[in-house]
């Protein structure tokens, strides 16, 4: 964090974000998990003790790259996440640096207690890589959309928690975790998301980075939704002259307390943004820090105490109120509160999300039903089914 | 006392007459065709497992189980627990055919707001019994249901469909210990022994054989059957019903992707549907040659 208050507003040039930040066509879209695969191989070259364990999800967690580069140091676990955590602990006690890879809903979802006792309490050098976290998993539905992981991992002593925002930062996080001694949790997403940082973007464990300067309020984000925060900030500046500071809190634990306090003192209002349960997640750690140090009005964008569901990644994100327009509504509310004005009991961004969800679901559902073929009781010819059409 | 107000009152003998067998086989083919149609519409979802289990799900819903599609919460229904939730497309199509919900709902698989979620959810679709997807917890829930049925002296039975890959999850074996110890004869585990999982074949990932011996050592009755033969599977269920001392495991040797030659035995078809166009057309065409006449087109 900058020690001297910047007089300027707008993007932080020292953050070295991509040049075409708001140009949809030029912005590269890559899933964060790709950065994990690349980081693993690089870390594996630097340190012969690094081993990778995977629970039957080698390709989709991107552990495959490591398996191909170092077949002898890759361990196939099968569908055994619980023993994977404890076996990794055993390997760590013998000097290895194990990365255990699965979907976040299984690891740390399924094996939380094994991680608690044999990794965290044991204080073994195990890195837990949770892929497919967040609701952007999409069509697979709620069972596979892990949104409680940040909350359950950040309350564990000895554990560090990282939520990188794009593929490049994920690579940096993986390399950093490999060098740290002790347990780490790394969170990735399945879906492609904008690559908006560069190799030159500063990254240091436990230090928040300011991506945009602003004096009206601060948006603290983690993970790929940070890009939505930048979009919202850009729109608010352009349309309303509201200047948001945007901070990347990639390390949820140990959290950068100074950055939160500074943001509270200098901007007087905070909005958090994450693709996880708002309760206990990034919002949880920021709220706790503010309450203990410098209480200022705070609003949160996150999953509102419900499970996700099937749908396309963008639909689910939008229907749950996680995209830029909802961030703008939360900003409006936090500014009203900062000015001491009365605000409705139920935040407008939650009401708007609920309305949007209903409209979207009705439209999507009806569109599908309108195409029902005769054999399933509809009016369209069976030949109109996608499976029957010649292309 | 059993609740006799709804559903069929008596468990019918399972013996299969030739005519009934033919009907079931035709039904299985129609179900497979609807399955491919549905998966291609959805654009994502699992193919190999559902195709391999089509015969067993047809037999369960149209011959074996005592159930009432119009009253999915009838308290004395047989329970079908699907532990490997990712093969839910086959359950959805079988349920639509049985009359649990209108077939037009198949158009909505995996779409935003649909009751047909990518992995099944108990709260969203009456009749799916449990929410599943994360592997290894279905057998424990089945055991809990079966234990309660015996405790309350209820006549219903529990069938638990499981994959072979999920036997790698330790929880399965905790459930088997409990099932054996409590002699849950009303509980039948049906293992889709198709030898594939996401990363490869089960025998290269984490060998399971000798599988029957493992279950036997846990005090379970083991029956092995050809999972793509409806007659063989029904005979296996008859054997399970005939044992009143132990729970039964039916190890059903199935062919993943059965009915679509280019998918059969190929683990790469575990988690994706055919692409629209040539791939999907070929899948539909190969299914049509499987059983001859397609029931659904002549209804």
Can you give a write-up of this model?
The complex is a heterodimer of chains A (391) and B (299). Chain A has 391 residues and is an alpha/beta fold. Chain A folds into 2 domains: 29-194, Rossmann fold (3-Layer(aba) Sandwich), CATH 3.40.50; 206-359, Rossmann fold, CATH 3.40.50. Chain A is built from 12 helices and 15 strands. Chain B is α/β, with parallel strands linked by helices and 299 residues long. Chain B has one domain (18-298): Thiamin diphosphate (ThDP)-binding fold, Pyr/PP domains (Rossmann fold, 3-Layer(aba) Sandwich), CATH 3.40.50.970. Chain B has helices spanning 18-42, 48-52, 54-64, 88-98, 138-151, 170-181, 202-205, 211-217, 230-242, 278-291, and strands spanning 79-82, 158-163, 187-193, 196-197, 200-201, 221-226, 248-253. In chain B, strands 1-2-3-7-6 form a 5-stranded parallel β-sheet, sandwiched between helices. Chain B has a two-stranded antiparallel sheet with strand order 4-5. The chains are: A alpha/beta (391), B alpha/beta (299). Chains A and B meet through helix 3, helix 10 and helix 12 of A and helix 1 and helix 10 of B.
How far apart lie the N and C ends of chain B? 40 Å
Largest interface: A-B, 54 and 55 residues
Structural class of chain A: alpha/beta
Strand order of the largest sheet of chain A: 4-3-5-6-8-7-13
Radius of gyration of chain A: 22 Å
Helical amount among residues of chain A, as a percent range? 25-40%
Question: What attributes characterize this protein structure?
Answer:
heterodimer; A: 391 residues; alpha/beta; Rossmann fold; 2 domains; seven-stranded mixed sheet; six-stranded mixed sheet; 12 helices; 37% helix; B: 299 residues; two-stranded antiparallel ribbon; 10 helices; disordered C terminus
């Amino acid at each position: 964090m900058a020690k001297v208050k910047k007089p300027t507003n707008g993007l932080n040039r020292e953050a070295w974000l991509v040049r075409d930040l708001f140009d949809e066509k030029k912005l590269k879209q890559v899933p964060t998990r790709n950065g994990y695969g690349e980081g693993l191989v690089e870390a594996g070259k630097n340190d012969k003790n690094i081993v990778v364990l995977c629970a039957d999800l080698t390709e989709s967690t991107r552990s495959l790259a490591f398996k191909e580069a170092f077949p002898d140091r890759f361990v196939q676990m099968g569908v055994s996440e619980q023993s994977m955590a404890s076996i990794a602990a055993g390997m760590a006690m013998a000097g290895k640096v194990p990365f255990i890879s699965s979907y976040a809903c299984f690891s740390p979802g399924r094996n939380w207690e094994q991680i608690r006792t044999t990794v965290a309490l044991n204080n073994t050098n195990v890195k837990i890589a949770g892929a497919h976290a967040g609701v952007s998993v999409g069509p697979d539905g709620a069972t596979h959309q892990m949104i409680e992981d940040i909350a359950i991992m950040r309350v564990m002593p000895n554990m560090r928690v990282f939520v990188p925002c794009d593929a490049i930062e994920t690579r940096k996080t993986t390399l950093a975790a490999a060098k740290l001694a002790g347990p780490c949790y790394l969170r990735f997403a399945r879906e492609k998301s904008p690559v908006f940082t560069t190799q030159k973007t500063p990254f240091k464990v436990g230090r928040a980075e300011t991506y945009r300067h602003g004096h009206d309020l601060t948006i603290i984000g983690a993970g790929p939704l940070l890009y939505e925060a930048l979009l919202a900030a850009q729109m608010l500046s352009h349309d309303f002259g509201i200047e948001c500071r945007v901070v990347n809190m990639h390390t949820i634990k140990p959290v950068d307390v100074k950055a939160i306090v500074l943001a509270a003192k200098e901007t007087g209002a905070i909005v958090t943004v994450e693709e996880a349960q708002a309760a206990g997640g990034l919002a949880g750690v920021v709220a706790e820090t503010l309450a203990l140090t410098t209480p200022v009005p705070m609003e949160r964008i996150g999953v509102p105490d419900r499970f996700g569901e099937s749908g396309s990644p963008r639909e689910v994100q939008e229907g749950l109120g996680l995209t830029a327009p909802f961030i703008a509504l939360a900003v409006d509310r936090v500014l009203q509160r900062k000015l001491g004005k009365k605000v409705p009991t139920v935040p407008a961004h939650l009401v708007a999300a609920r309305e949007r969800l209903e409209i979207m679901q009705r439209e999507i559902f009806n569109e599908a039903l309108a195409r029902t073929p005769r054999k399933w009781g509809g009016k369209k010819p069976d030949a109109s089914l996608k499976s029957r059409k010649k292309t | 006392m059993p609740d006799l107000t709804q559903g069929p009152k008596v468990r019918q003998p399972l013996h299969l007459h030739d005519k009934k067998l033919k009907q079931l086989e035709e039904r299985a083919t129609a179900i497979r065709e609807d399955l491919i149609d549905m998966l291609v519409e959805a654009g994502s979802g699992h193919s190999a497992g559902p195709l391999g289990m089509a015969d067993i799900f047809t037999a369960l819903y149209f011959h074996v189980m005592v159930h009432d599609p119009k009253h999915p919460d009838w308290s004395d229904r047989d329970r079908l627990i699907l532990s490997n939730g990712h093969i839910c497309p086959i359950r959805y199509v079988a349920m639509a055919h049985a009359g649990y919900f209108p077939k037009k709902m198949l158009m909505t698989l995996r779409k935003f707001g649909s009751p047909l979620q990518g992995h099944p959810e108990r709260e969203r679709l009456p009749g799916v019994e449990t929410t599943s997807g994360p592997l290894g917890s279905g057998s424990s829930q089945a055991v809990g249901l079966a234990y309660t049925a015996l405790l309350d002296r209820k006549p219903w039975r529990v069938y638990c469909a499981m994959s072979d890959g999920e036997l790698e999850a330790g929880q399965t074996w905790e459930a088997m210990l409990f099932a054996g110890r409590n002699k849950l004869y009303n509980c039948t585990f049906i293992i889709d022994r198709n030898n594939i999982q996401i990363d490869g074949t089960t025998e290269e990932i984490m060998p399971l054989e000798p599988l029957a011996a493992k279950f036997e050592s846990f005090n379970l009755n083991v029956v092995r059957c050809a999972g793509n033969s409806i007659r063989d599977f029904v005979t296996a269920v008859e054997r399970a019903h005939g044992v009143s001392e132990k729970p039964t495991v039916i190890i059903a040797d199935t062919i993943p992707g059965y009915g679509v030659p280019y998918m059969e035995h190929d683990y790469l078809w575990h988690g994706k549907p055919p692409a629209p166009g040539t791939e999907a057309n070929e899948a539909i065409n190969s299914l049509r040659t499987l059983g001859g006449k397609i029931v659904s087109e002549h209804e």
